[in-house]
């Protein structure tokens, strides 16, 4: 509703309202003289004069945009409605809400004629030159007038009668005019009601149009379309990234596949070759092992046949002292002269390297040559050197098949004490370290802290042997005596590994130079020497006991009865080989000792140790077993790694397949979205095109069907006779009424406003690329695509601003741009009741002459107005959305239809409303923030309120 305080809407001088349909009262009031040369404002002739160009402003009316109040204030003049001063002059300021009602005619005074026409000599005249109503009773009839003979002559009488006659005629005409005026009032009331109804309907139409527009906008889903495009771009970008990743993964997978195939081929080839070699080696190994085993068995069988405890008796020759003393030789055997003792000793070296424990010791009386046999001299090497030499010789021979390590320890047992001859305690002044025997395993005894000198060649062996011999001599002032009262033991420890089958052995070679076995009674020693002799005899007796136990296969062997037997436990048992040298003296004086030694040798010789047992190195065996298990675990881990690698490759392949599937699904989704978008767009275009085409057709039909209502008030009161003349008046009026203004103007509109078909716009927006390209904004058709028309009474030429893109299909606000509008849509000229002012005003000549109210063509106008009203009602009831503006005029009532601008071609961008009237371009948010009052003003009617400036 209009603001009642507004001077325009509340107290409009024209009686028009911004929000209500208005009535236009023609310029020709009854008292105005008829000027045939003046044209009506809305006549085609007048329009041809381009009078609107002289007008200062025009306002375009539409439902969506009203006229700014300030603009209305400044740009129009509101005429007042005036009727003839003869009849009545009034200025009625009509309220915008109230219907247009003419004020009631003034009551005629019955006696006014007498006042107006006093019976004087001057006759009837007008007061102040204005006509007055004369009552019926106050007007004398011609017959009733008495001729004043004294004051009037015949000439005056004639004038008087003529005046009376004119008075009567004018009185009749006045009555007719009153009747006509009453009819017009009634018709005015009816039209006002219709206009109100039409206004209400138009408001409903406006709301409906807004809903439709919003619906169309929602159909387009313009906002969502932007989101869709952004989502499409994101999806496209993600798709590209995923495609790149897919390509990389595919390349990696193919490389993995190739590598895997190559690796498989290589591994299969290598495995085949390795398997072949393994089979061959296994075959050779088996053969070799069988051969070696056979050799060992045969060799061991030979040794067994010879006896595991072999006893050699060696008799030294008489020395120079004995020869000088004339000692006799009691021992005589041919082999005693054979010095080649070591020939049968060398095979024990092979047994040591094969893993057998060997014990070689020399037993005999003091000075019989035990040390000479075991150690020898530099020119004549003893058993120790020779057997070690033989040992390293065999090692060299077996170096391709076996790997050996040899270490040598030198110790002595003196008075039942073990002494390390290679240790630091053997130096002068040093305290000898006491060593103990420990059993570290089943049948394995070890002396903790005993120095083990690693040797790899005979020079090293010789150095070790020499060191031990020197250490043994340091401990006594008399080296010969000391050596006779202690057991000197060389322990050669051999560790061997069979390189073919990994078999390891750990064996010992005991080389023992025993103390002299003299009888105590013979030596008659006392004190410390007796103690030494007792210890020596005890140890030798223990050795005899052990050998006796072994010979009798006693379950208990007393190895621990002495340090000597305890040390030699590993090599005196049934698992070892033993060689004993029995040293005897050939001197007759030593015969008893020689017999004792031979008896002892006889007992040892009779011992059957049984088959020897190989000393396998269980430690190395366990170690290699652990290594084998570790290798198996590593092999399993490698297999697991290979399996994991294969699983990884398979997983990558699965991922690639999943990504391929995902890419395909995304591509299909993108295609679906694009197709859906195109369909939505086409539907929106078709909908809008259909609406536009329907509205255009209906508007054309309405313009064709709507007859023009003859203007009212085109004649003065005095021209009533022309009305009565049916032969002349209709001819002239026919010129204005035959061709409706709307129709004429519509023909011009068709030439001036070529409504472009929407297909022209659609062809620019079909390309999807242009949708996404913001730079591709339509340019050429934007100013003309508006297709807007105005029903404003006055148009003003304004340069057309380039229409920006729209965000929606919401109808745009109106614009005063009328450069391309058809003339029937141009605003009407303002009505001015003041004729003088209008005449003086040069622009007033351009104003239309409205149909006077007293026009004899009132009946025709009424019929035309009824037709227009019926059309209007039908159009309202049909709720047609008027796109093209229409103009309906009926007896000064100018009913304008809103125009709707529908613009399409957002092409994927948010459309924007275009406000051409004031250059504003409010966005959707700005439009929403408008107050209801402003919306009503903008969407309201503003007919006749513009262009007056
Ligand atoms: N077969 C032999 N040929 C020549 N000389 C020998 C032989 N055997 C021993 N002799 C000489 O006999 C002497 C004594 O020898 P030897 O020291 O080896 O005897 P022994 O038994 O070790 O004495 P002891 O018990 O005191 O150690 C040495 O001078 C040595 O040269």
Q: Could you explain how this protein is built, in words?
A:
It is a single chain. This protein is an alpha+beta fold and 949 residues long. Among the domains are: 160-210 and 226-287; 307-616, Kinesin. 47% of the residues lie in helices and 9% in strands. The strands form 3 sheets. Strands 2, 3, 4, 5, 6, 9, 10, 11 and 12 form a 9-stranded mixed sheet that branches. Strands 1-14-13 form a 3-stranded antiparallel sheet. Helix 4 (154-220) packs parallel to helix 24 (858-877). The longest helix is centred in the C-terminal third of the chain and has 88 residues, at 618-705. The chain is rod-shaped, with a radius of gyration of 73 Å. Mean pLDDT is 66; it is low at 1-143, 711-861, 878-930 and 936-949. The protein binds adenosine-5'-triphosphate. This is Kinesin-like protein. Pfam families: Kinesin, Microtub_bd. InterPro entries: Kinesin-like_fam, Kinesin_motor_CS, Kinesin_motor_dom, Kinesin_motor_dom_sf, P-loop_NTPase, Vik1/Cik1_MT-bd.
């Amino acid at each position: 509703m209009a603001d009642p305080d507004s001077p325009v809407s509340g107290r409009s001088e024209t009686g028009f309202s911004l929000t209500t349909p208005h009535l236009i009262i023609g310029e020709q009031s009854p008292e105005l003289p008829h000027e045939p040369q003046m044209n009506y404002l809305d006549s085609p002739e007048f329009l041809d004069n381009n009078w609107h160009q002289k007008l200062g402003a025009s306002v375009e009316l539409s439902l969506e945009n009203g006229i700014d109040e300030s603009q209305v204030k400044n740009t129009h003049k509101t005429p007042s409605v005036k009727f003839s001063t003869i009849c009545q002059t009034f200025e009625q300021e009509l309220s915008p809400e109230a219907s247009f009602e003419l004020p009631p005619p003034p009551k005629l005074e019955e006696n006014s004629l007498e006042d107006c026409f006093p019976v004087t000599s001057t006759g009837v005249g007008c007061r102040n030159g204005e006509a007055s109503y004369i009552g019926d009773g106050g007007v004398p009839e011609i017959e009733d007038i008495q001729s004043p003979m004294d004051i009037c002559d015949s000439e005056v009488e004639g004038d008087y009668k003529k005046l009376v006659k004119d008075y009567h005629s004018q009185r009749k005409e006045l009555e007719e005019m009153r009747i006509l005026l009453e009819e017009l009032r009634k018709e005015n009331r009816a039209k006002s009601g219709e206009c109100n109804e039409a206004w209400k309907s138009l408001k409903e139409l406006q709301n409906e149009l807004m809903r439709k527009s919003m619906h169309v906008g929602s159909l387009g889903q313009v906002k969502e379309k932007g989101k869709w495009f952004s989502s499409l771009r994101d999806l496209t970008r993600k798709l590209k990234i995923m495609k790149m990743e897919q390509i990389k993964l595919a390349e990696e997978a193919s490389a993995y596949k190739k590598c895997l195939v190559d690796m498989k081929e290589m591994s299969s080839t290598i495995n085949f070759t390795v398997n072949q070699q393994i089979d061959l080696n296994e075959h050779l190994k088996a053969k070799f092992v069988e051969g070696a085993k056979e050799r060992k068995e045969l060799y061991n069988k030979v040794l067994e046949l010879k006896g595991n405890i072999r006893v050699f008796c060696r008799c030294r020759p008489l020395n120079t002292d004995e020869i000088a003393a004339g000692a006799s030789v009691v021992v005589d055997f041919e082999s005693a002269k054979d010095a080649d003792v070591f020939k049968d000793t060398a095979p024990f070296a092979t047994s040591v390297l094969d893993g057998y424990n060997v014990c070689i010791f020399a037993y005999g009386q003091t000075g019989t040559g035990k040390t000479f046999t075991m150690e020898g001299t530099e020119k004549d090497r003893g058993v120790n050197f020779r057997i070690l030499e033989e040992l390293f010789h065999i090692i060299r021979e077996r170096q391709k098949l076996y790997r050996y390590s040899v270490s040598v320890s030198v110790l002595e047992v003196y008075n039942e004490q073990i002494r390390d001859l290679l240790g630091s305690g053997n130096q002068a002044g040093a305290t000898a370290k006491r060593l103990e025997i420990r059993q570290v395993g089943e049948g394995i005894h070890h002396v903790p802290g005993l120095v083990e000198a690693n040797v790899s060649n005979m020079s090293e062996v010789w150095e070790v042997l020499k060191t031990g011999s020197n250490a043994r001599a340091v401990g006594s002032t008399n080296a010969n005596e000391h050596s006779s009262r202690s057991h000197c033991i060389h322990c050669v420890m051999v560790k061997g590994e069979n390189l073919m089958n990994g078999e390891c052995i750990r064996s010992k070679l005991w080389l023992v130079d025993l103390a002299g076995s003299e009888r105590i009674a013979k030596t008659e020693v006392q004190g410390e020497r007796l103690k030494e002799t007792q210890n020596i005899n005890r140890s030798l007796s223990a050795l005899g006991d052990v050998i006796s136990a072994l010979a009798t296969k006693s379950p208990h062997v007393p190895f621990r009865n002495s340090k000597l037997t305890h040390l030699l436990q590993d090599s005196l048992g049934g698992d070892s080989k033993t060689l004993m040298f029995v040293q005897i003296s050939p001197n007759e004086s030593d015969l008893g000792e020689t017999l004792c030694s031979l008896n002892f040798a006889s007992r040892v010789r009779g011992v059957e140790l049984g088959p020897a047992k190989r000393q396998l190195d269980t430690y190395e065996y366990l170690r290699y077993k652990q290594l084998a298990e570790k290798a198996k675990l590593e092999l399993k881990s490698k297999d697991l790694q290979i399996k994991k690698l294969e699983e990884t490759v398979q997983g990558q392949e699965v991922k690639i397949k999943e990504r391929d599937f995902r890419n395909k699904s995304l591509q299909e989704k993108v295609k679906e979205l694009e197709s859906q978008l195109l369909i939505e767009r086409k539907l929106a275009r078709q909908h809008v095109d259909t609406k536009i085409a329907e509205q255009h057709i209906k508007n054309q039909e309405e313009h064709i069907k709507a007859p023009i209502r003859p203007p009212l008030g085109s004649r003065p009161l005095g021209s009533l006779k022309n009305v009565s003349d049916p032969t002349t008046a209709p001819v002239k009026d026919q010129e204005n009424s035959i061709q409706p203004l709307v129709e004429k103007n519509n023909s011009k509109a068709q030439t001036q406003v070529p409504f472009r078909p929407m297909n022209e716009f659609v062809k620019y927006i079909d390309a999807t690329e242009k949708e996404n390209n913001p730079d591709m904004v339509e340019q050429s058709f934007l100013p003309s695509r508006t297709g807007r028309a105005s029903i404003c009474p006055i148009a003003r030429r304004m340069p057309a601003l380039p229409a920006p893109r729209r965000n929606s299909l919401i109808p745009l606000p109106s614009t005063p741009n009328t450069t391309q509008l058809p003339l029937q849509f141009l605003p009407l000229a303002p009505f001015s009741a003041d004729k003088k002012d209008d005449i003086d005003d040069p622009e007033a000549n351009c104003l239309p002459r409205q149909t006077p109210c007293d026009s004899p063509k009132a009946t025709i106008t009424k019929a035309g107005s009824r037709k227009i009203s019926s059309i209007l009602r039908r159009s309202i009831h049909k709720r047609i959305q008027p796109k093209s503006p229409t103009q309906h005029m009926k007896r000064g009532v100018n009913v304008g239809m809103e125009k709707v601008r529908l613009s399409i071609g957002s092409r994927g961008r948010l459309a924007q409303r275009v406000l051409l009237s004031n250059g504003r371009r409010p966005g959707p948010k700005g439009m929403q923030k408008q107050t209801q009052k402003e919306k009503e003003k903008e969407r309201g009617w503003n007919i006749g309120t513009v262009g007056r400036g």
